[in-house]
User: Fold these one by one.
Assistant:
Number 1:
Amino acid sequence: MVCFPCSTKSLVIFFIISAIPIAYIISVERAAPATHVYRYHSSGWFRECAKWDDFHRRFIVSLFEGGVAEVQVPDGHSPDVILEETLLVKEAALAGNASLGIAVDGRRNRLLVVNADVMRNRHSSLAAYDLSTWRRLFLTQLTGSGDEKSFADDVAVDEEGNAYVTDARGSKIWEVGVNGEIVSIMRSPLFAPKEWYKTFVGLNGIVYHPNGYLLVIHTFSGNLFKIELKKGGEVKPVKVGRGKLVFGDGLELMSLTKLVVAGNPSGRLVESSDDWETATVTAKFSGPAHRLASAATVKDGKVYLNHLVGMGYPRKTHALVEAVFSPY
C-alpha cells in the first residue's frame, strides 16, 4: 500500500521537476531574440519544413497534419508583427499522412511535397503542385500498405526536374522523374551504420549541388554522403572534420562551398574546398532548442531555421529564426 505522505511528497517532487523546464521555456519565449525572427500564427502544433519562395516573396510551409500553407512577408515588415499562415493545399486523398520535406522548383514554377504515414510507415508519396494555381501536377505513391515499411522524409530537385526523396526508415533514395514516374531506387551498404542504435532514423536531409551530385545526411550516425549522379549514383562518404553532424536534419546550400545543417544543435555551418570530397564544420548557431530546428532556408542571403514545434493556445505561434553563425 502506498503511504499518503509519501505519495504527496512524490507529487510535489514531480511538479517541481516539471516546473523547471516549463519555467525555462517561458523565460526563453519571453526574452528578446538575439537574431531576427519571423513569427506566424498557425492552427497546428507541428511544422516540419519551410522554404523561401523568392519569386512570390513568401515562405511555404508543410503541415504535419497534411497539406501546404504560405506565410506572406509584406515589404517593410516589422519583427513585432506576427504573420499569418494561409492554407493552400489540403488533399482528401492524403488524409492521415503528414506533409514533410518540400522543395521549390522555381525553374518549373512548382512545389514538390513529401507525404508520409508517420506513425505506421505504411504510405510514402511525392506530390507536385503549380506554384501559381496550386493545381496538382502529379501524385506518385512510393510505397503502400503492401510494401516494406518506409518513411519518406525530404526531397531535392535537380536541374532537369528529377526529384530525389529520402527514406528515413529504410535508408534509401527514390528517384522520381519530372513527370512523376519512379526512375530508380538508390541503395548502398554505406547507408547502414554498423551500430544498431544508429539505425532508428536514417537518411534524412538532402540537397542537389549544381555540380551534378547530391549531398544527404544520415541523422543518427551523422554521416554525410555525396552521391555522384553522373557516375551511376556512386556513393561516397564525405570526410567531415572539426565537429560532428549527429542529429542533423534538414540541409540547405548557402553557396557551392557552404552547407547549413539544421537539427540539434540548432544549426551548423559546413564548408568544403574540394567539391565535397572532404568538409569541415566551421561554425554553429544555437537557437530556441525547445522548438527543435528541423529545416533551413535562405532568404535574401540570410539563413532561417524552421522549427518543428509551435507554442501557445489556442493559436499556435511558430518561429523562423535567422541563424547567425559563430566560429566552431
Number 2:
Amino acid sequence: MAVKDCGGHKGCECERERLYRKCCAALLAVVLLVLFVVLVVWLVLRPHKPQFYLQDLSVLCLNVTPPASTFLFTTMQATVAARNVNDRVGVYYDEVDVYAQYKNAAITVPTRMPVGYQGPDDQSVWSPYLQSMDHVQLSPELAVALAQDETAGYVLIDIRVDGWVRWKVGTWISGHYHLRVNCPALLTVNDGKGSYGATTGGGNGYFRFHQAAACSVDV
C-alpha cells in the first residue's frame, strides 16, 4: 500500500490543499447562511397584495342612442379605497390608471392617479372623475346591449385599476410588479324601473350605486 509523502515540497502542497479546502468550506457555509437568512426574511416579510374596495360610484351621465349613434357619452366619479395589509412592508404606487369598462370594453379614457407611497397598515382613498371625452365608440352590438340594460333597469359596470407597484422593506425597494384591480358595480336605472321610453342618459338619482363592494386584485 502506498503511503502519501507530505515531506519537503510535497508537504507544502498538502498544506496548501488543506487550506484551500477549508476556505472553500467556509465560503460555502457563508453562502448557505446568507441564503437561509434571505429565505427566513422573505417568509416573515413576504408582501401581501393590497386590498381594494369600491366605496361609491356616482354616474352623472351614461348615454348611447343606437342605431342612430354608437358613440357613448359618460361622466362618473368613482371612490376607491386601497389598503396596505402588510405590517412591515410599504407600497409605492407608480403609473396607476383608473377607468371604467362595460362587458370588457373601455367606456372611459384612463385617469392617471398621482404617484404615492403607502406605509404599513395604511389606507388611501382615490376619487377620480372618469369620462368618455368624445373618444369612446362602442360596437353596434355593445351599444344595443347597453341601451337594453338601461331599459331593463340594471347596468353592470367594472371599475378597473391598472398600474405598477413596488415593495419597500427598510431601505430596500423592489422592482416593479403589475397591479390589476377589478371592482364590479351594479347600477340601478330609474330605481330599477328602467327607461321604458322616458328620458334616458342621466340626471339626479337616475343611476344609483347601492352597495360598497370588494375588488379582485392581481399582482
Number 3:
Amino acid sequence: MPSLIARLTLGVAALPFLAQLAVASSSLEEGALPSYHYGASIPVECMNRSIETGEHIQDARDEIQWIPFPICNETGKPLEFHYGIETELNCTVPMIDDPFFHLLEFYIHSDAPLACRLPSRPSPHVERIGEAPSDPEYIPLVFALAGTLQLSHMHISTHLNVLLHSTPKHHIHPHDSGVLDSGAAYSTSPLSHMAGSHTRRLVIGDPLPLSFSVRWFPTPALPKTEGKVEWQGMGGHIYASTVFYALVSFIAGVLGSGAYFFGVILPKRLRGRGLGGATPLGYGVNGKGVGVGNGWGYSKRID
C-alpha cells in the first residue's frame, strides 16, 4: 500500500514536467516550420470561376482550381502583399474583357464572391530526408466588392480596406517574423457610387483601378477602444510611448552625466589647481598652499 501511494505521488509530481515537455516539443516543432520575415511578399490566388454560372472550376483531381490575381499595371505582376507593411497599394487591371466583366457582375451581386487565399507560411527552403514535404496551408481572403449594375454598365467602389492578422513568433524581436492567421477585404463607401471619389463607372474595355489600404494586426484579436489598447501595429510608427521613453532616457542621461561631473570631475579639478580669480579678492587656494590670483580666474602653481 505505501508503494502504491508513493507511485501515485510520483505520478502527480511528474504531471507539470510532462506538460512542460509537451509544450516545449510543440514549440520546437513550430519553430522548425518556415515563417514570413518583415517585408516578405505574399502572393494572392483567387478561385477560378465559370463565366456562365459563376461556379468554381475543378481540376483533374476534382480539387478547386486557383489562379493568380489579375496582373497590375503598376508592377506588371499579380497582386501581392508584404508581411507587416502597412501601405496604400494601387493595382490597375489593364482592360476589362467580356468574360471578366461577367465575373464582376457575379462578384457585385454576391452570387459568387471574389474568393481568394493567401499562403499562411512561405514555402520551405529545406526538406527533411525521408519525409514527404508538408502541404502548404492557406487562409481565406474574400474581397467584398460593392457596387451597382445597370443595363449597359456598372458602378464599382474601387477602394478596399484590407485587414490582415498575423501570429508573431515569440523571440527578441516579436515583429520581424510570423505567420498569417486571418484576413478580410471590403469596399468602402458603397452607397456613394454615383458621386464618390473612389467609385468607377465601368463598361467592357475600360481599365479597373483598384486601390487597397492595407493594415496589419500583430495578433488575431482586434484593438480595444476601451481599457487597454492591445494593437500597436507592426512597426514603422512613432507612438506616445516611444516619445515618453526617449524623453525619460534623455533626462536620465543628463542627470547621470551631471552627477558624475559634479561628484567626480569637479572635485578633482578643484583639488588639482587654485581657484585664483574665482575668489572675490583674487586670492585662491592651490593644492600646496596659498596662491595669489591674477584676476583672470587662475593662479600659478607653487611647486
Number 4:
Amino acid sequence: MSTVPTSDQFLALSCSNVGVGPGGTTSMVARVSIVDYRGSVVFDKYVAPTMDVRRAVTDYRTSATGITQAHLYSGDAWAFSVVQQYVASLIKGKILVGHSLWNDLSVLGIPHPAVATRDVALYQPFRNALRSPHQVVGLQTLAWQLMCRRCQEGQLHPLENARAALDLYRSHADEWEAAVMKGNWPCALPPSTFSRCYL
C-alpha cells in the first residue's frame, strides 16, 4: 500500500466456534462478528450448521462461548454458505484486524490478502514487549498487559474480541502503518499450516 489507509478501510473480525468430530476438537464456526474502525457492529450472526447439529456437534463449548444448540437452530441463524458469501463481500478490499486471524479465516473458508491483515497476535512489537518474541500471546494477556483492559472474563464474546483487537491495533496504528509503508512488515508469519487462508 502506498498511502496510509483511512479508517473506512478497516474491519475487525472475530468468530466463535463449536467443536465437531471425536472429542469436539475440530472447530466449526458458530458465530461471526465484524465491527468497523469505531467499534460499531457491522455484522453479528449465529451460523446454522451445515449438517444435523445434534449428531455433528460434539462440544458446544458453552462454558467458554455461551453458545447452545438453541442459538444454532434459531430463526436468526444464517446458513453457512450465506454467511461465507456475505462476509467475503464485506471484507473484500478491506484491511482486516483481529487476533489469530488465521483461525477465523480458516473456519470461514475465506482467504484474504496477507498484506491486508493486521493481526495483533503476530505484531512483533507486542510480542517483544511481553518478552514472547516467538510465540502467540493470547488476546486477554495482550489487552491486559498493553492496555490495562480486561476482556474474555467469563465467556468469550466475539464482538468484545474484535473491539479489543481493534483497540490494540489503533494503539500502535501509526508505527504499524509506517513500517508497512517502508516495506518492513512488522509481523511474524502465521502458522504455515494456515497458508491457504492468505492470498
